[in-house]
Amino acid sequence: MAKKPAVSKPAPERGAEHVYRMLRQAILCMELRPGSDLDELEISSRYAVSRTPVREALIRLTAEGLVQAVRGRGSRVAAMNLFDLRDFFESLDLLQRAQTTLAALRRSDEELREIEAAERDFETAAAGRDVDALTEMNFRFHLAISQAAHSRHLHHGYERALIEGMRVGHVSFIEHDGTHSRLQEHLDRTIADHREMVSFIRDQDTEGAERVATRHVELFRNRIVTTVLSPDATRRVQILN
């Protein structure tokens, strides 16, 4: 009688990385709602791993601001308050202007190529209208710019702001008010901004880079106001904690 093949178990590092990626995606796409509890036993059972990689994944997500540790209760998905976004957009505006400007000043040729590749990936996602891919590729594009800025402390703050923006941005794509033309207009303007950022960074035009970075945050802010913050959208999404 033939022996059954052994079931391969992921190495601890590999298992933690897998759990991290799956939980992160579930949080960003709102499958796991803000404020919901994260049970380590349930997660370890779902992904067929021990509790150690689950804890490692939760620690990473906590560091990114997507998970909150609750004393005596374990962990839960970080809350979102869509009616308290002023601080978020103020921070995003300052950080995005700084990092885009510094990237234009300090980027290397290799980093420029990475930024250009990330911009192309976003356009591909936009053509496919894949919401998950859109938010992820937008994050990677701006993160590539931030890495080219070579400012460690600013990069840390900007990355946190971008991750928080991914959750809000995901909702804005879902709640695009059902009008195809308006969604396409937003995507077209986003792509135009991205292309200009790449151009100014390529030419090392710091003033132009800062100008388009400011305009890009305003575009995002306006979209949130017209989609996510509308009363009907808030009732449908039900993500306030």
From TrEMBL:
A Pfam family that the UniProt record links to this protein: GntR
Organism of this sequence: Salipiger bermudensis (strain DSM 26914 / JCM 13377 / KCTC 12554 / HTCC2601)
Residue ranges annotated for the HTH gntR-type domain, each copy included: 13-80
Protein name per its UniProtKB record: Putative transcriptional regulator protein, AsnC/GntR family
Coiled-coil regions listed: none
Origin: domain of life: Bacteria
An annotated Gene Ontology molecular function: DNA-binding transcription factor activity
The UniProt record lists the keyword Transcription regulation: yes
InterPro entries membership: GntR_C, TF_FadR/GntR_C, Tscrpt_reg_HTH_GntR, WH-like_DNA-bd_sf, WH_DNA-bd_sf
Keywords: DNA-binding, Transcription, Transcription regulation
